[in-house]
Design a protein that fits this description.
There is one protein chain. The chain is α/β, with parallel strands linked by helices. It is built from eleven helices and 18 strands. It has a six-stranded parallel beta sheet, with helices on both faces. Strands 11-3-7-8-12 form a five-stranded antiparallel beta sheet. A three-stranded antiparallel beta sheet has the order 2-1-6, covered by helices on one side. The longest helix has 14 residues. The radius of gyration is 21 Å and the shape is globular. The N terminus is likely disordered. Belongs to the zinc-containing alcohol dehydrogenase family.
Length: about 350
């Protein structure tokens, strides 16, 4: 959890437990001590925690990008729960409120924070990003201003989905999606799907999504993609696949979201996007890529990236409350909080298949 913790219980009550990543492919349910409740903090009983691809990376390799797990760490960051206690300066929440938690605590002092781009804060303390503990626990302590009350018609599971959905919302903001923006999405995994849902909520009139997997494409179609295109992993197929994508779009591709982040997907994105369009790199499959950047530059295709999100929870919750976005079909598996079930949950997530969240 964001404020730290190590072992044992809380105020003499039941012992607080958490899922600790203790080694490669090794998770253990162990005691997790909560820090003192600060005046602006809340204590939250976790009710729903999703598994992200980054969680699986940490389990399999003890690292994700340049973040390395060097000591045991509590895993998990997609979460929602019920307030059990509030600090004496907390005015907007009370015990019993159901909340979705934004997992990153920025410093609010650096230039990025002062400019409103707190997602780029170099001192960010983010759930389950080493050395900061995550939220797959009975209870956690978190700043109240990062806990967002859920409307009555939004479930705790949907609240936990605000975290991955925030990635799609932030990407749509960065790419300036609107009612005149035709969108191509590379990759129909969980992030590709939430980006598709967000793009539609932002008004995108036509969305084409591509992937190498038939099942994922079928899910994308059921969730509202206008067209789906199956592609290969072979770089030699890019030119032909771009032609197929253009036929499926029936118009120019204004914005492409690369939600995979591989040489092939980025090459396709750059080639498929119209002159003057924009490519937004969302996925980070490769740390380095070799792509046809010069031809794209000659057509003034802008390339932007995203890192996490900022100020997205209120809009995500409103999309869920209003029904503009329905994330329930993305919640495919449920597991209890026991040693056996947590291990099984991560195994299912790592296998992929028909598991989304």
């Amino acid at each position: 959890m964001g404020k730290g913790g190590m072992s044992h219980g809380n105020n003499g009550e039941e012992e607080n437990m958490a899922a600790w990543l203790v080694g490669i492919n090794s998770l253990k349910i162990q005691p997790f001590k909560l820090p003192p409740l600060g005046p602006h903090d809340v204590r939250v009983r976790m009710k729903a925690v999703g598994i992200c691809g980054s969680d699986v990376h940490y389990l399999k390799t003890l690292r994700c990008a340049h973040f390395v797990v060097k000591e045991p760490m509590v895993i998990g960051h997609e979460c929602a729960g019920v307030i059990e206690e509030v600090g004496n300066e907390v005015k907007n929440l009370v015990s019993g409120d159901r909340v979705a938690l934004e997992p990153g605590i920025s410093c609010w002092r650096c230039s990025h924070c002062k400019e409103g781009r707190y997602n780029l804060c170099p001192d960010m303390k983010f759930f389950a990003t080493p050395p900061v503990h995550g939220s797959l626990a009975n209870q956690i302590v978190h700043p109240a201003d990062l806990c967002f009350k859920l409307p009555e018609n939004v479930s705790l599971e949907e609240g936990a989905m605000c975290e991955p959905l925030s990635v799609g919302v932030h990407a749509c903001r960065r790419a300036d999606i609107g009612p005149e923006t035709n969108v191509l999405i590379m990759g129909a995994g969980p992030i590709g799907l939430v980006t598709m849902l967000a793009a539609r909520a932002f008004g995108a009139p036509r969305i084409v999504i591509v992937d190498v997997d038939d099942h994922r494409l079928l899910v994308a179609k059921e969730l509202g993609a206008d067209e789906i295109v199956k592609v290969s992993t072979n770089n030699q197929d890019v030119a032909g696949e771009v032609e197929v994508i253009h036929k499926a779009m029936r118009a120019g591709v204004d914005v492409t979201f690369d939600c995979a982040g591989f040489n092939k997907t980025m090459s396709t994105a750059l080639s498929a996007t119209r002159a003057g369009g924009r490519v937004c790199l969302v996925g980070m499959g490769h740390n380095e890529m070799t792509v046809p950047l010069t031809p794209a530059a000659a057509r003034e295709v802008d390339v932007v990236g995203i890192f996490r999100y900022k100020n997205t929870w209120p809009l995500c919750i409103e999309f869920l409350r209003s029904g503009k976005i329905d994330v329930k079909p993305l919640i495919t598996h449920r597991f209890g909080f026991s040693q056996e079930e947590v291990e099984e949950a991560f195994e299912v997530s790592a296998r992929g298949g028909n598991a989304i969240k």
